[in-house]
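Workshop exercise sheet. Pairs work together: one partner reads the sequence aloud, the other fills in the structure field after running the prediction. Swap roles for the next sheet.
Pair: D.N. / O.F.
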Amino acid sequence: QLKTSSSTRNGNGNSNSNIKDDSLNFPFVGMSVGCNKGFDALNTLRMGTFDASLVKSDWNKAMTDGDKLYHSVCKQSSTESFQVDEELVLKQQPREGSVHCFEPMPNTFKKLQKSAESLGYDKKGFKVVNGAVSKDEGKTYFKTKLEAGVENQGLGNACSAKSTNCDEVDILTLEKYVDNHVDSDGPIHILQIDVEGFDGDVMLGAGDSVLKRVEYLEFEYNWMGSWENQHLYDMIDMLDQKDFTCYWAGNEKLWRITGCWMQYFDVHLWSNVACVNRSRVPR
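Structure field:
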């Protein structure tokens, strides 16, 4: 059982239905696949709902209370919370929203769930989901002795079978999960994927029904997991056919990939790719 805490023209010249600038008429929906310690997911919920009561420093205290927490390689725990525009908040009604935080590692999931409940963030839309995400549904097993918040652990590090040191965890697809657990039929405003080399599989398992709703997509590219045998070119081409334009995400800079392919882009190095859905750009 799944465990949760609660007509424009695209770059190919194809015609699409007009998309109105009505995103704010729908609840904010974000998805963090490979949520880990939850700092980015929390910041995303704060940004999408304009809720200044969601505070990263409070989250850090809850996550580090009691059991030891694995250090943040990218230092998400020490960066500031998203700056909420107080004037904007005063001018409009509070926005409903949710971020679905997918985390398969047993101890990390338990820590996320406990922190969300202790702070009341689960009532504010922070939904913790104990599951791995891939292109096909199934079951897998993850070690229970690993430190909460451990990084660089994914499907490639799963146990071969259930044992006293390994817990069974569901493998989900975004297509089925969204159909069964996302109430809003509006946009999925942000889909963030960081799953230690299986990012392409997550996108393949999302299907057209999910990807056509995604406004902004971000995933990690490296040499691990399925990326070892997958080509970035094929994934960029697939996303282009689904109306996404993708860029290398640098420090305050973007370098376009879609329509600007260079052969060396397929070299497997750690990087982040950011994509925007052309068909969902307001006109």
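Discussion prompt: The helical segments are 39-49, 56-64, 86-91, 106-119, 174-181, 199-204, 207-211, 232-241. What would you look at next?
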